[in-house]
Design goal:
CATH class of the largest domain: Alpha Beta
Oligomer: single chain
Number of domains: 2
CATH topology of the largest domain: Leucine-rich repeat, LRR (right-handed beta-alpha superhelix)
Number of strands: 14
CATH architecture of the largest domain: Alpha-Beta Horseshoe
Helix content: 25-40%
Strand order of the largest sheet: 2-4-6-8-10-12-14
Shape: elongated
Radius of gyration: 28 Å
CATH superfamily of the largest domain: Ribonuclease Inhibitor
Order of helices and strands: HHEEHEEEEEEEEEEEEH
């Protein structure tokens, strides 16, 4: 008898109360979901498509870790307010455009700790030198186009850029520093221009996919420049066969 009483139909008032709760819940939940999805889409848009132009102080010719500032007309006040110093990095950007007039990308200009999403960089023809560790360990950097006019790539400039697949070295290049591309495990092909006179120690050390290398005659290749690459292994095998 008690079970039948417990299973009795809900009263009309109880049904109306449940409907009111569902309407209130829907009125709050659905707009909240739409707003959250809108913010997510906007955030993904900013990360994936935004091309960031560096804000460089007037008169600057050398870009280093102290002169590159993240600038965005939407987020600038938030970044610069001082309330969120940890956000003063390149976290939001995958593509960078360095303005014309810069002659050198200095040491550790794009540190790995602040360039987690950096995929590509546009470098102007005014740049003559890429400094030590300028892009070191930018693990998501996939492509880099080096401009005509570039003369020097310093040691470890692109060290351990593990997703770097393509590099075009300009004919103006003269020196590739030690370890400049060491550990770039996705790099498959490189053409060394005729003007290059020196390839430093371990310049391409551990580039485990690098099998296609074009070298100019007379270039000074330091020890272990291509150590741990398929190119080096093939060259050693050929020498052993000939001997």
């Amino acid at each position: 008898m008690s079970e039948e009483m417990n299973l009795s139909p809900e009263t009309e008032e109880q049904l109306r109360a449940k409907k009111r709760k569902r309407r209130v819940r829907s009125a709050i939940l659905y707009p909240a979901i739409l707003i959250a999805l809108s913010f997510l889409c906007y955030f993904l848009y900013r990360i994936d498509d935004f091309v960031h132009v560096c804000r460089i102080p007037p008169g600057t010719t050398v870009v280093d870790s102290g002169s590159i500032k993240p600038y965005d007309p939407v987020f600038d006040d938030f970044f610069r307010s001082g309330k969120h110093p940890k956000l003063q990095s390149y976290l939001m950007y995958r593509h960078y455009v360095i303005p014309d007039g810069i002659t050198e990308i200095g040491e550790s200009a794009f540190p790995e700790s602040g360039c987690l999403f950096l995929r590509s960089v546009e470098i102007p023809g005014s740049v003559k030198k890429i400094g030590r560790s300028a892009f070191s360990e930018c693990c998501n950097l996939t492509t880099i186009e080096l401009p005509d006019g570039l003369e020097t790539i310093d040691p470890m400039a692109f060290r351990r850029c593990v997703n770097l697949k393509r590099v075009e070295l300009p004919d103006s290049l003269k020196t590739i520093g030690g370890g400049a591309f060491a550990g770039c495990t996705a790099l498959e092909k490189i053409r060394i221009p005729d003007g290059v006179t020196e390839i430093g120690i371990g310049a391409f050390l551990g580039c485990s996919s690098l099998s296609d290398v074009e070298l100019p005659p007379g270039v000074n290749i330091a020890p272990d420049a291509f150590e741990g690459t398929p190119y080096q292994q093939a060259a050693e095998k050929e020498r052993n066969t000939q001997s």
